[in-house]
Specification:
Distance between the termini: 50 Å
Radius of gyration: 25 Å
Mean pLDDT: 84
Strand order of the largest sheet: 1-2
Strand content: 5-15%
Number of domains: 2
Helix content: 55-70%
Structural class: mainly alpha
Low-confidence stretches: none
């Protein structure tokens, strides 16, 4: 009888940009590891970096004398460092609720854009009907 998993036991990812794929392939070749080991190591390292920056520390390389040489600069770490709990004034929240419950009518410009988008979506399907 198969075990019932309480949490995901498999994580599939898809990377489509060529530079990232090439860098991953180079790292796997240099380190003689597979996709799973590369992913595990990357997640472990990023997790540590996030914990460190949230504690107010910086991530940097140091030389043999212990002098900082280069600080790691990644958008995800900047986000982790600066992320704060969002507080919203009661009045602003009420305005959002009102807009969600009573959205304004689309403007003429939005109606025109929606019509153009709809027409563009229909063009390929009409072309395939003509050729078939």
């Amino acid at each position: 009888m198969p075990r019932k998993a309480s949490s995901p036991t498999r994580l599939d990812t898809s990377v489509t940009d060529r530079p990232t794929i090439e860098q991953a392939q180079q790292l796997m070749a240099q380190l003689e590891i597979g996709n799973a080991d590369l992913y595990r190591s990357a997640v472990e390292l990023l997790g540590w970096c996030v914990r460190e920056v949230r504690e107010g520390r910086r991530i940097a390389s140091v030389d043999d004398r212990g002098e900082p040489v280069r600080e790691v600069a990644m958008p995800v770490l900047t986000y982790a460092r600066t992320r704060r709990r969002l507080t919203v004034a009661e009045e602003a929240l009420e305005q959002v609720v009102h807009l969600v419950e009573h959205p304004p009518a689309p403007t003429p410009a939005l109606r025109e854009l929606m019509a153009r988008t709809r027409a563009m979506r229909e063009e390929p399907s009409q072309a395939s009907h003509r050729s078939g």
